[in-house]
Amino acid sequence: MTTSAPVGADFDRRGQRLDEQLAVMRQAWSGAPLAEDIGSVGPSPLNARGPKLLFGAFAPKALARIARWGDGFLCAALSEQAGGMFQLFDHQ
Protein backbone atom coordinates (compact mmCIF):
# COMPACT_ATOMS: atom_id res chain seq x y z
CA MET A 1 0.00 0.00 0.00
CA THR A 2 1.34 3.40 -0.98
CA THR A 3 0.14 6.17 1.29
CA SER A 4 -0.28 9.83 0.67
CA ALA A 5 1.70 11.15 3.64
CA PRO A 6 -0.26 14.38 4.28
CA VAL A 7 -3.60 12.58 4.73
CA GLY A 8 -2.56 8.99 5.48
CA ALA A 9 -4.81 7.64 2.71
CA ASP A 10 -4.09 4.72 0.42
CA PHE A 11 -2.77 6.43 -2.72
CA ASP A 12 -3.55 3.39 -4.88
CA ARG A 13 -7.27 3.62 -4.01
CA ARG A 14 -7.65 7.30 -4.88
CA GLY A 15 -9.70 6.58 -8.01
CA GLN A 16 -12.04 4.22 -6.17
CA ARG A 17 -12.50 6.80 -3.40
CA LEU A 18 -13.32 9.45 -5.99
CA ASP A 19 -15.97 7.16 -7.54
CA GLU A 20 -17.51 6.59 -4.10
CA GLN A 21 -17.47 10.30 -3.29
CA LEU A 22 -18.98 11.27 -6.64
CA ALA A 23 -21.84 8.80 -6.13
CA VAL A 24 -22.64 10.39 -2.76
CA MET A 25 -22.38 13.90 -4.20
CA ARG A 26 -24.71 13.06 -7.10
CA GLN A 27 -27.21 11.64 -4.59
CA ALA A 28 -26.98 14.77 -2.44
CA TRP A 29 -27.39 17.04 -5.45
CA SER A 30 -30.46 15.08 -6.60
CA GLY A 31 -32.34 16.03 -3.42
CA ALA A 32 -32.64 12.41 -2.31
CA PRO A 33 -32.02 11.64 1.39
CA LEU A 34 -28.43 10.58 2.04
CA ALA A 35 -29.46 7.94 4.58
CA GLU A 36 -32.48 6.90 6.62
CA ASP A 37 -31.58 9.29 9.42
CA ILE A 38 -30.16 12.04 7.18
CA GLY A 39 -32.51 14.12 5.08
CA SER A 40 -31.76 15.86 1.85
CA VAL A 41 -29.11 18.53 1.55
CA GLY A 42 -30.04 21.87 0.08
CA PRO A 43 -30.44 24.14 -1.59
CA SER A 44 -30.90 22.13 -4.76
CA PRO A 45 -28.56 22.99 -7.62
CA LEU A 46 -29.93 24.53 -10.80
CA ASN A 47 -29.01 21.39 -12.74
CA ALA A 48 -30.53 18.18 -11.29
CA ARG A 49 -27.23 16.31 -11.80
CA GLY A 50 -25.41 18.98 -9.83
CA PRO A 51 -22.70 21.34 -10.96
CA LYS A 52 -20.76 20.61 -14.10
CA LEU A 53 -17.76 18.37 -13.38
CA LEU A 54 -14.68 18.93 -15.49
CA PHE A 55 -11.78 16.49 -15.34
CA GLY A 56 -8.30 16.30 -16.77
CA ALA A 57 -6.40 13.01 -16.91
CA PHE A 58 -4.62 10.62 -19.24
CA ALA A 59 -4.59 7.19 -17.55
CA PRO A 60 -7.10 4.71 -19.04
CA LYS A 61 -9.00 4.22 -15.76
CA ALA A 62 -9.18 7.97 -15.23
CA LEU A 63 -10.46 8.50 -18.78
CA ALA A 64 -13.20 5.92 -18.17
CA ARG A 65 -14.10 7.78 -14.96
CA ILE A 66 -14.37 11.03 -16.90
CA ALA A 67 -16.75 9.37 -19.37
CA ARG A 68 -18.82 7.98 -16.49
CA TRP A 69 -19.05 11.06 -14.25
CA GLY A 70 -17.80 14.08 -16.15
CA ASP A 71 -19.51 16.83 -18.06
CA GLY A 72 -16.32 17.92 -19.75
CA PHE A 73 -12.69 17.04 -20.35
CA LEU A 74 -9.72 19.36 -19.97
CA CYS A 75 -6.98 18.17 -22.31
CA ALA A 76 -3.46 19.51 -22.17
CA ALA A 77 -2.41 17.77 -25.39
CA LEU A 78 -2.99 18.50 -29.03
CA SER A 79 -5.47 16.12 -30.66
CA GLU A 80 -2.66 14.60 -32.76
CA GLN A 81 -0.72 13.85 -29.57
CA ALA A 82 -3.71 12.46 -27.70
CA GLY A 83 -3.87 9.38 -29.92
CA GLY A 84 -7.01 7.27 -29.45
CA MET A 85 -7.93 8.94 -26.17
CA PHE A 86 -11.00 10.66 -27.60
CA GLN A 87 -12.44 7.42 -28.99
CA LEU A 88 -12.72 6.08 -25.42
CA PHE A 89 -15.38 8.71 -24.69
CA ASP A 90 -17.39 7.63 -27.72
CA HIS A 91 -17.54 4.04 -26.39
CA GLN A 92 -18.41 4.78 -22.74
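The record above closes out task 2.4. Task 2.5 opens with a second protein, given below.
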Amino acid sequence: MKTLLSRQHAFADDALLRRALCDHGLVSRTADGRAYRRIERRPPTEAAALLRHLKASASGRPEAAT
Protein backbone atom coordinates (compact mmCIF):
# COMPACT_ATOMS: atom_id res chain seq x y z
CA MET A 1 0.00 0.00 0.00
CA LYS A 2 2.88 2.36 0.74
CA THR A 3 4.15 2.21 -2.84
CA LEU A 4 0.68 2.79 -4.28
CA LEU A 5 0.01 5.79 -2.04
CA SER A 6 3.46 7.26 -2.65
CA ARG A 7 2.73 7.38 -6.38
CA GLN A 8 -0.67 9.03 -5.90
CA HIS A 9 0.02 11.99 -3.62
CA ALA A 10 2.37 14.97 -3.51
CA PHE A 11 3.19 15.06 0.19
CA ALA A 12 5.48 12.54 1.84
CA ASP A 13 3.27 11.08 4.56
CA ASP A 14 1.77 7.82 3.37
CA ALA A 15 1.22 6.74 7.00
CA LEU A 16 -1.16 9.67 7.49
CA LEU A 17 -3.09 8.63 4.39
CA ARG A 18 -3.29 4.99 5.54
CA ARG A 19 -4.62 6.10 8.94
CA ALA A 20 -7.19 8.38 7.31
CA LEU A 21 -8.35 5.59 4.99
CA CYS A 22 -8.85 3.33 8.02
CA ASP A 23 -10.49 6.07 10.10
CA HIS A 24 -12.99 6.79 7.32
CA GLY A 25 -13.85 3.12 6.91
CA LEU A 26 -12.43 2.80 3.40
CA VAL A 27 -9.88 0.12 4.28
CA SER A 28 -9.34 -2.29 7.14
CA ARG A 29 -6.01 -3.57 8.38
CA THR A 30 -4.71 -6.48 10.34
CA ALA A 31 -3.84 -5.97 14.00
CA ASP A 32 -0.13 -5.85 13.17
CA GLY A 33 -0.71 -3.29 10.37
CA ARG A 34 0.95 -5.42 7.71
CA ALA A 35 -2.04 -6.08 5.46
CA TYR A 36 -4.79 -3.77 4.24
CA ARG A 37 -8.07 -4.62 2.58
CA ARG A 38 -10.36 -2.25 0.74
CA ILE A 39 -13.90 -2.16 2.13
CA GLU A 40 -16.36 -2.33 -0.76
CA ARG A 41 -19.28 0.06 -0.49
CA ARG A 42 -21.20 2.50 -2.64
CA PRO A 43 -19.74 6.04 -2.54
CA PRO A 44 -21.87 8.89 -1.15
CA THR A 45 -23.74 10.99 -3.72
CA GLU A 46 -21.24 13.85 -3.46
CA ALA A 47 -18.30 11.52 -4.00
CA ALA A 48 -19.98 9.89 -7.01
CA ALA A 49 -20.46 13.34 -8.58
CA LEU A 50 -16.81 14.19 -7.94
CA LEU A 51 -15.66 10.90 -9.46
CA ARG A 52 -17.73 11.55 -12.61
CA HIS A 53 -16.23 15.04 -12.87
CA LEU A 54 -12.66 13.76 -12.46
CA LYS A 55 -13.21 10.98 -14.97
CA ALA A 56 -14.60 13.45 -17.53
CA SER A 57 -11.70 15.85 -16.90
CA ALA A 58 -9.13 13.09 -17.32
CA SER A 59 -10.66 11.99 -20.62
CA GLY A 60 -10.81 15.55 -21.95
CA ARG A 61 -14.58 15.37 -22.46
CA PRO A 62 -16.99 17.89 -21.02
CA GLU A 63 -19.08 16.55 -18.17
CA ALA A 64 -22.72 15.79 -18.95
CA ALA A 65 -25.24 17.78 -16.92
CA THR A 66 -27.05 15.79 -14.24
